[in-house]
Amino acid sequence: MAEETVYNRIAVLRADRGVSRRDLAAALGVHYQTVGYLERGEYSPSLHLALRIAEFFEVPVEVVFSLRPFPRLGSPS
Amino acid sequence: MTALYRTRARRRLLVAAGAVSVLVLWADATVSWFIAPSDTAVLVNFVLLLVMLAFFVPAVTALNIATRGLASLPERRLDERQVAERLRAFTQANIAMRLILGAVLVAIVAATWEGGPAVRVPGAAVFLGVMALLWTHYLLPLLVAGWRLPDPPPDDPGDDQESPNEGSVAT
């Protein structure tokens, strides 16, 4: 299988909203380490979990996940 | 206890200790094949079982804590990442178990080839061999899960300096 990379902005959204890993994990019904693995890019969530993460932050799913790297804060584009 | 499984290298040492406990049981069955039934066999059996437990109890306890019950908890108690990791562990353990069964079969055929149907195998060796098989089958998923386990993310989000604000997943 070809390598498929999915980028996410969970850590940035979580910091922006002041939500701890444990709180996010509790809201999603997953282990808090799973949130850490997601943020470190070591686990790719199911579509269901991805949609629930987007729903938790009240943003469209493409704001949280992307097939291309997100631009760094302050960079043009 | 946490220090026992904090790093991947230590967890892999625990996996090695768990593997030793299984190997000791296999050694016990092999020894019984050659010297049972006898008083020596009983003594050797007792000593090897104690050695097996000395490796098994701390290694399996620490691995179960490190993997957070990945190999033993019911699926409803695990999240989707843990379930996926458990499936990988069970799949790899299943492949390893097939190889072990093949190796055991070859070893038994080789050991009994010359004697033919007249070969007698001590009951203790058969019993311990079956026990070793069951033990291996029971323990392999935990050993595989412990071997594969990556270092957990730091608990304090403020410590997570290395990752920029994006993560990437390779599948």
Automatic annotation (TrEMBL), chain A:
Residues 10-64 form the HTH cro/C1-type domain. Signal peptide: none annotated. It holds the Pfam family HTH_3. Gene3D superfamilies: lambda repressor-like DNA-binding domains. The keyword rRNA-binding does not apply. Keywords: DNA-binding. This is Transcriptional regulator.
UniProtKB/TrEMBL annotation, chain B:
Residues 151-171 are annotated as: Disordered. Residues 153-163 have a biased composition (Acidic residues). The chain crosses the membrane at residues 12-36, 42-67, 95-113, 119-140. The keyword Transmembrane helix applies. Keywords: Membrane, Transmembrane, Transmembrane helix. It comes from the Bacteria. This is Uncharacterized protein. The lineage of its organism: Bacteria, Bacillati, Actinomycetota, Actinomycetes, Streptosporangiales.
